[in-house]
């Protein structure tokens, strides 16, 4: 999967659209190809903008409303630009009863953002998810592709420090 | 055949029948909200619950097929309580301002709640509040009333293949509508109104324009003229609880006079005119192709149905030259009323107010197209649907059923039977052939009763061919030519036909397309809810109207001859070009 973060603005968007065409060529005639194509596009662009979604809907010969219906159904898809790292706090049953909500509150306080929002330095986006299938590790959070298990509010700072923004980048920004 | 028991009585039904249909055949009444026979059976609303012996839970009868020996109970305390609970839950989320709702007295949810005897709603809590969507000229969406039955979703995707309306988000936050929470004008929608035609509640309706008409009727400085489409006369009666298929042409005319219109004209007249223009256009295209060997766009597609026009502009912008340049009968009438007729009564175009009554919501959009101002002002000021005219008549306190018959006004009120059948699928084709064949051969169309039987009926795509022999000298280029024709209704079938033409898999000379199932008689503005049985009843009424007339062919209409002699000159002439023909635009799909 191509993975380019949306905040790296030096990546030419036109170039990304050219790469998107290759992805669309591969998936547009495949049964059930829409969701993988959307996932890859989100990985490339960082989020799914109207322009990207309209291009995808044309390629798949589906209406924009239909594609939007899929995108808005799944919480993993985002139509808003997101931070360099996406934190997903599981609030599935097991995580919820083992303190997922306290972990979420602690993250909100630490990052000073609400659910669905991105930090001022565009480093973190905070989201809520339902069950990663890691109930034995509850409460769990995911940062990008990494699952962190048995998270406690007191451990949060240490976890986040692994993903701290590159100071040089922050200064540049 | 399977043996089943319904409420302790034995019945036999065919295998594959749903429990719902089996029970209905057995004479039982089972309420439904999301179900649409032959179109949608998804068990979404849960109102059709029944008991099946041996099943632990109640089952949604619309999705459950019958099986041998099945023992069904349609009415028991358990069933009634469950249905009641389901409807109470729906009502707890529904914006129920019934007294001021467009669907008051015509609402399926209201009826189900009444039939189940619901007296109070146990549940209170969050309600979805949605902004009203008035972004298009034709339709108004009120999401707060939506019960997520998905009927509109299914007709928009399965019948029209446009998919403007799709469930967005999920759970309690679900919105049935255009992409994300946008408005209808931000996605591709042809405004056919089939969504409004199937909506069980007041969530999608036409943009009501009744008050604009009342205002014009009160204005002493305006001559207010009305035209009614062929499909209205076979459906308006249903607004007054008459049987589907009751012809009310004469009562409708009387009612319109009582409402205060200064002149009552017939869109049928301009349908006859359309045949003169479109028939001549077809012959001219054939001549260019066969004699002058020019590269001319064939087949020629009919252009009466504004949803179909938008569809072509969005989906096949490279094939717009296949569309006949003829305006729709509504717009031809508008142009004539504000030029020819205005002059006759000594009024300026801006002092004439033209109202159309159409079975269609897309006509509201068509009237507002920038091209539709041949008279210098907007040719058709307001378009009312059949339902809106029904409401106006009620508002005026007119007892419709007791009205005497009367005739439409001259000089734009006389029409042939060929114009009547513009209302149903296959009708424009038949009307055109009645004239074209006779122009070319000098003989009457060789079909019993003048009906082109292969293109009659509700089949999705119909084809026929007709050989020209012993033609008149002017048309010698058609000697021995077999004209190939096709007829499609619904945009799904139209798309299939256009694709065939595009890929070279079929070659036709002339193709009729109507946007709505069954043609205009099944339009988005007709009394709710249109089923195939109702479509057949309305079509039968239309053919009866046609056959009951002495005048069956457009070119025999003396007032059509008169308007050419006195005003227009000849078909495809300069004035025809200016007033009766139009052009189309490429639109970008979203």
Topology:
The complex is a heterodimer of chains A (173) and B (590).
Chain A: H1 13-27, H2 34-45, H3 50-59, H4 64-73, E1 85-90, H5 93-97, H6 100-111, E2 124-129, E3 141-143, E4 146-148, H7 156-161, H8 167-172
Parallel strand pairs in A: 1-2
Antiparallel strand pairs in A: 1-3, 3-4
Chain B: E1 2-6, E2 9-13, H1 19-25, E3 49-52, E4 59-60, E5 71-73, H2 77-93, H3 108-115, E6 139-141, H4 151-159, E7 166-168, E8 175-177, H5 194-198, E9 204-206, H6 210-218, E10 223-228, H7 249-259, E11 263-266, H8 267-290, E12 300-301, H9 306-315, H10 329-344, E13 352-358, H11 362-367, E14 382-385, H12 386-395, H13 417-420, H14 427-441, E15 461-467, E16 482-489, H15 491-502, E17 510-514, H16 532-547, H17 558-568, H18 574-580
Parallel strand pairs in B: 1-5, 10-11, 10-13, 12-17, 13-14, 16-17
Antiparallel strand pairs in B: 1-2, 3-4, 3-5, 6-9, 7-8, 15-16
* Biggest beta sheet summary of chain A: 4 strands, mixed
Question: Based on DSSP secondary structure assignment, what is the total number of beta strands of chain B?
Answer: 17
Strand order of the largest sheet of chain A: 2-1-3-4
Instruction: Write down the Rg of chain A.
Output: 17 Å
- Mean pLDDT across the residues of chain A is 88
Q: What's the quaternary structure here?
A: heterodimer
